[in-house]
Design brief:
The complex is a heterotrimer of chains A (about 300), B (about 240) and C (about 290). With about 300 residues, chain A is mostly helical. Chain A has one domain. In chain A, the strands form 2 sheets. Chain A has a two-stranded antiparallel ribbon. In chain A, α1 runs parallel beside α6, α1 packs antiparallel against α11 and α2 runs antiparallel to α3. Chain B is an alpha/beta fold. In chain B, a hairpin with a 2-residue loop joins β1 and β2. The longest helix of chain B has 16 residues. The N and C termini of chain B lie far apart (about 45 Å). Chain C has one domain: ABC transporter involved in vitamin B12 uptake, BtuC. Helices cover about 75% and strands about 5% of the residues of chain C. In chain C, β2 and β3 form a beta hairpin. The longest helix of chain C has about 30 residues. The chains are: A mainly alpha (about 300), B alpha/beta (about 240), C mainly alpha (about 290). Chains A and C meet through α4, α10 and α12 of A and α4, α9 and α11 of C.
Chain lengths: ~300, ~240, ~290
């Protein structure tokens, strides 16, 4: 497999994490304009830990996930009772604040005689842990792929469990869920923390793949893309967001057919698909149908 | 041929069918009323007739034309106006503006102005409050405004959904007096009511509806009033011990 | 000290005037459709780029450029309305909003394709010196912006309170169920509201680009963020609120930027919004998305 293909596949996997985090919130009935912030938190935290404090990547990734979970939890806590556009705007405000904080963050240390670390709008370069530890791009793809597979397996297990049904119930009709005794607030907080951790995991892996990150990487456009991936792929299964990412990065980007106007094609495709399938290609009905066909 | 003919109308909310095949007729020039317990589907039927809801099946023929599934404004254009449950006046608009809204489809300014004068004649209390915001009116006044608004489109068929809801008995009497007046002046009225007693006093024909279907059709004398009232509130399945 | 305060207030009001227009556009659409159009800013940007393209290739006067901007914005807005909002009427609000989010990608890429350079010059509204009033400077174009914004607000007020169309819009905002029952052709009102909102947005966009003398592809994002922020600050769904929110945002930004710099300026605006939302201040939560 050539380097280009490896790069594309790795990107697909990386963006799947943030797409899945947007998906998780959509299932629970909330539209978030801010997952890019937690992706960024993971990227910066993970990068700082490995580059400036020589933490091993696995440990840094766990710490990044914890930080992402806490961050999204803290955003969710005061905004629990907000719904719809109000909630989305609160997440947007939080995400833009995070991006500005990234712009203001200067966390520099001398490593091997040179200053390293995030330098505000100049970005954070030199996140080279995987290269310094001899991990080839193909191996890294394997690691990222395995992690994604684990996450997907976890999602699939939850989908079939009572928790999954509860989540979807809360998403479709929170009043009804509350009236049958479900603690909607707790569910939403749990979902928020999980989504934050998921986005952060994607972020730390992304930072180490790219070796360079800057605040602009985590602007609202990334949030727009994650929502678009989740919704066009379909809300019926965790493979939905994956499909969304595949459509954009896999089909459109890599085939270079629409070189230069990929976003025009993808954006239009999303809007068009949603006209006929408001809950995406792999929506609940389609997944139901597929399950019946193949069982 | 009746003025309004409803045949086997089925209306669903998602998978739940609120109307399971409703059939009834409204004769021209008469007051017809629809009684039934809460949840029977009376409001759903009214919303379907007005075009707010689309029926899954069935036909609704008004003055010889099929109107099932047509857009609400097209149905108003054909002469059917609904006074909705809970009046739904435009709260920040004045009484006068509310009435103009009812006349939205009419282009003839002079006759509209004439109609407004006549409405004020019929509803003197509205004239007093012409420049007042509709949201500040009392329940009874809002109900009258809602009726006036619907009448501004000069409907041939006036639908009314629970006009007495939440109103004091004296006000209810006034509302029904107006209903009788309108009938005398030639408007056909199809009226949904919880207040079976008042409704039976004015109607020429009535229907009972339960759980999405019509269960009885007759004129006010055909069933003992207390039996009608019992069915209207409790449904025919329940019988006292 | 006082001089700074007054100067910043003047600057803040003129920036706020543009924000007010953007917020009005968002609020018109939200008030009537109960959904946010996230391609509002990008559609405005499309209009501005259409004008830029005309100017770069043919040269054009201020008035023509303004007309092109507004027409372009209305055209782009109509496209968004047909593809993202008309199909989901009565359906999923999330699908409509995410679809409009997705079209943003289209507009941004289109802008960079047609006008590949990151920055283009745009004819200034006024090229002379600012007016000096004692210790204060009043930029003529800032005055023009305030004037144009005021004129647009008056035109909007007149439309809403003195025309039949305006009555229909207000009916839909106040009591959507009864509006249809009154015989109002709701889908057609939606189309016209979109056009009106896009036109107002186009005016705002033109004022911004003509007062800065330049245009970049960031305009779409900028207009959307400022418009949303101002709309939410003023209380979602309220037209007077949109104007107040816009002016307030302009004032807050001008003063915080003076004392704390541009990044803190944005940070504080977002923090304010977050806090107000979290506190569920009543004026902000009067209407929710459907």
């Amino acid at each position: 497999m050539d380097d280009y293909a490896i790069g594309v596949l790795t990107n697909i996997a990386l963006f799947s994490f943030i797409a899945l985090s947007a998906y998780l919130l959509l299932i629970a009935g909330e539209m978030s304009f801010g997952q890019q912030a937690f992706f960024g938190v993971g990227a910066y935290a993970g990068g700082i830990l490995t580059t400036l404090y020589a933490w091993p990547l696995p440990l840094a990734a766990l710490a990044a996930m914890a930080l992402g979970a806490v961050a999204q939890f803290l955003v969710a806590l005061p905004t629990l009772r907000l719904r719809g556009l109000h909630f989305a705007m609160a997440t947007l405000a939080a995400a833009e604040m995070a991006r500005i904080l990234f712009e203001l963050m200067h966390w520099r240390r001398e490593i091997d005689g040179e200053l390293a670390g995030p330098d505000g709008t100049q970005g954070f370069r030199g996140i080279r842990w995987i290269f310094e530890h001899g991990i080839e791009p193909l191996h890294y793809l394997g690691i990222v792929g395995v992690l994604l597979a684990l996450v997907l397996a976890l999602f699939l297990m939850i989908e079939r469990s009572k928790l999954g049904a509860t989540l979807r119930g809360v998403g479709l009709d929170p009043e009804l869920a509350a009236s049958v005794g479900i603690d909607v607030q707790r569910i939403k907080l749990g979902v928020a923390a999980a989504a934050g951790a998921l986005a952060a995991l994607g972020g730390v892996l992304y930072a180490h793949h790219n070796t360079y990150i800057e605040p602009r990487n985590f602007d609202i456009m990334l949030g727009v893309h994650s929502l678009a991936y989740a919704l066009i792929g379909g809300l019926g299964t965790a493979f939905g967001p994956l499909l969304g990412v595949l459509l954009d990065i896999g089909a459109l980007e890599s085939t270079r057919v629409f070189h230069g106007y990929r976003m025009i094609v993808f954006g239009g495709l999303v809007a068009l698909v949603l006209v006929y399938r408001p809950r995406g290609l792999l929506d609940e009905r389609t997944v139901q149908w597929l399950r019946q066909r193949f069982s | 041929m009746s003025f309004l003919e409803v045949r086997d109308v089925v209306t669903a909310y998602g998978k739940i069918e609120a109307l399971k095949g409703v059939s009834l007729e409204v004769a021209e020039g008469a007051i017809t009323c629809l009684l039934g317990p809460n949840g029977a589907g009376k409001t759903t039927l009214m919303m379907t007739l007005a075009g707010i809801l689309r029926p899954k099946q069935g036909s609704i023929v008004f003055a010889g034309e099929e109107i099932a599934g047509r857009a609400p404004h097209a149905i108003v254009a054909r002469g059917v106006a609904l006074v909705p449950e809970n009046r739904l006046v435009f709260p920040a608009m004045t009484v006068l503006e509310n009435m103009h809204a009812g006349a939205y489809q009419r282009g003839d300014k002079k006759t509209v102005a004439g109609d407004i004068e006549r409405m004020f004649g019929r509803f003197p209390r509205l004239k007093e409050r012409a420049a007042q915001q509709a949201g500040t009116l009392s329940g009874g006044e809002q109900q009258m405004l809602a009726v006036a608004r619907a009448l501004m489109s000069r409907p041939k068929l006036l639908l009314m959904d629970e006009p007495s809801l939440g109103l004091a008995p004296l006000v209810v009497e006034e509302i029904f007096r107006i209903v009788t007046e309108l009938h005398r002046d030639g408007t056909t009225i199809f009226l949904v009511e919880q207040n079976a007693h008042m409704a039976l006093r004015v109607a020429q024909h009535f229907y009972l509806m339960e759980q999405g279907k019509v269960t009885f059709s007759g004129d006010p004398g055909s069933l003992a009033e207390d039996e009608v009232i019992r069915r209207a509130y409790l449904g025919s399945a329940q019988r006292p011990a | 000290m006082i001089a700074d305060l007054v100067q910043n207030t003047l600057d803040g009001l003129s920036a706020g005037a543009t924000y007010a227009l953007l917020a009005l556009g968002f609020t018109l659409i939200f008030g009537v459709l109960r959904r946010a159009n996230l391609s509002f800013g990008p559609a405005i940007m499309f209009g501005c780029y259409a004008a830029t393209w005309t100017h770069v290739n043919f040269g054009a006067g201020l008035l023509l450029l303004a007309l092109i901007t507004v027409s372009g914005a209305v055209l782009a807005g109509a496209y968004v309305e047909r593809l993202c909002f008309a199909p989901h009427r009565g359906g999923s609000a999330i699908a409509a909003m995410v679809a409009s989010f997705a079209l943003w990608m289209q507009f941004e890429e289109l802008a960079t394709l047609i006008m590949p350079r990151h920055l283009y010059a745009f004819p200034l509204l006024y090229e002379g010196d600012p007016l000096a009033l004692g210790p204060f400077t009043l930029r003529i174009d800032a005055l023009a912006m305030l004037g144009a914004a005021l004129a647009a607000c008056l035109a909007l007020w007149w439309t809403l309170y003195r025309t039949r169309f305006g009555l229909a819009v207000r009916a839909l905002i106040e009591q959507p169920a009864a509006a249809a029952l009154a015989g109002i052709n709701v889908p057609w009102v939606f189309v016209r509201v979109f056009a009106l909102a896009s036109a107002i947005g186009g005016v705002a966009g033109y004022l911004v680009v003509a007062s800065h003398g330049q245009i970049t592809p960031m305009l779409g994002m900028w207009a959307t963020l400022k418009g949303l922020l101002a709309m939410m600050l003023g209380g979602l769904g309220s037209l007077p609120g949109a104007v107040i929110g816009g002016l307030a945002l302009g004032l807050i930004e001008a003063h915080t930027q003076w004392y704390l710099g541009p990044q803190m300026r944005d940070l504080i605006a977002y923090l304010l919004l977050f806090v107000l939302l979290a506190a569920r201040v009543p004026w902000m939560t009067t209407r929710s998305a459907s």
